[in-house]
Amino acid sequence: MNDRLVFLCDLTHTSQGYAAELTPYPVACIKAWIHEYSRHGDTLNVELFKHPQRFIDAFIERQPAIIGFSNYMWNLDLSYSIATEIKRDYPETVILFGGPNYPLEDHNREEWLTAHPNVDSYIIGEGEEPFTNFVDEWYESQDIPKALQAAGSGCHAIIDGQFVKSDDVSPRVSDLDKVPSPYLEGYLDEFLKEVPLTPLLETNRGCPFTCTFCVDGISDRTKVYRKSIDRFEQELEYVAQRYQGKVLTLADLNFGMYKQDLDASRAIAKVKKEYDYPYHLQVSTGKNQKERVLDCAEILEGSLRLAASVQTLDPDVLKNIKRQNISAEKLIEVTKLANRLNANSYSEVILGLPGDTKTKHFDTVFQLADAGLKFIPLYTLMLLEGTVLATDEERNRWEIGTQYRVVPRCFGVYNFKDREILSVEFEEVCVYTNTLPHEDYLECRSLALTMGLFYQDRILFELYGFLGTLGISPSSLLAILHERRMSLNPALTELFRSFDEATASELWEDPAELERFTKAGPETIARYVAGELGNNVLFRHRAIALLDLVDDIHEVAFEVAREVIKKAAPDSFEENSEYLDDLRRFSADRKRNMFELGTEIEGEFSYDFRQLLSDDFTSQPVRLREPFRIRFSQSVEQVEMINDQIAVQGEDLNGIAKVVSRIPVAKLQRLVTYGESSEATGNDDGVQFASPTALSPGEFA
Q: What is the average per-residue pLDDT within 577-594?
């Protein structure tokens, strides 16, 4: 055992590429603190790991004395399974865990530590200082109880069969400039060379909101601490000079809500102008002060996704989860401004929050669609350890019923000497409450597919634009399509039936039974890796539709649209009948066979689609004197994007499903060339890449 060697691990599964695609910035902050403030900083050698097999191999070869593991819902089983093998052969190795995936109540903390006996101590909150204090004391005394006492706030353990904790305080760093930059120190250089990983930076830590479903909603994190803009700009420039990718992730929880964020936006814009990086900025934008968020979006010129993550618009549900949203009227106003700025607007909705009902969920989703949000991800509520909602009191209060499922991409087989480690991560999801029966939960899940087929990724934005000119909202169409989902046409009906069946079958009531099944042998894990099991049900079915059912989607949507128009605007029905035919062909031709590279589609059209596309289809159609020839083709950039994604994810159905989950399909819609012109239009630069798994840096990871 090497007493001077410390390994810090922010591991993620790798059987289908990096499952959590972020540089290990949180553990790198701890390394930076050790080298700056430890009494033995010049003596200790601290190394960082993301890839699990590389870590295992390095451990066996070099045998560090202390190992720190991050604990998130996507890597707990992986980290603990490896820790168990380490303790089996090297029991003297000190194992520390930390991160948000840990209970808030002491009796549940004791139960957690008892169930994970190979964890010597758990560090809650921001780990820089307590981890360093622990290492210093242990290095000098080789005594874990003494090290726990010296570590200060936030350390928990089972000592002589008793639960021991220093206090209830979650440690915080009040001045982020005190944390030496792991980027400027060069600690993350090796990870910047791996483009599949996305650089992670921060300008502040903390969140003033107390949402009960969020790990950052606890009282210990309500105060926001900042980093200087000069330091942030230096880090960003350092990354831009070394990273070959285009995406930057900021860990800020409310970007754009504070005046300092305007300065951060200017710094990002400045670096982008010089280095063409970052092209895409992934960050959670502020939950209020939307005008300031829009100012940031304008400075960043389309690189910022505007998130109006309302979770719900129902006032009673918001009260139950201790959340405040902007009003629906303000949301509509802000969305229109965002779309005008070409800042991709999206809003997340969570199904199953306390007090939620089928009617409330549908109302929220349809209000967001009518507001013009470009993308509306619909999620099932996860009961995350470390959140108020996962406490016994809240579970009992709302009679929350849960089941378990495999986290997509979070599984694999790893080798420790001559032994195989079978690892699978599970998530606990809400499937009913005292206001949402299970059958209503299932129908709300089915609404996610309705939105995926008929709204997401601007699949029918041309049609919705025209309906808007007649005063008809998207929800008027969506409500009918959903109601008729089991009788639209044979292909789509079968897709909904398959989705409903897969939604029910992916859930397990007993997590122990699910674990026995998934870890029965490496051949079972292989079925998950191959995509036979454990797929994201929604993205898989959306992939089927994009590959084979684009014409079916347009056929039924335009058929229902004619019904709606005839009823709501009868004077416009006959007048626009021929235009609807042209519009259906135009819309379908842009989206058909998007994954068949090099294909072109041509056709003659009687309306001025050049002007309509320029106006985002919010203007009235104008009939041309003569039919006009239009060509639909893929740009070089689109072909490269598809090739890059398929090379990583695969070109079968499972691979396409992963592509759909990683990049917005709206970016793949064919560009449009008119007549003999060589100028193609229709590129949707406002649509940004999907975010990788979110986390809060500084929590010990």
A: 95
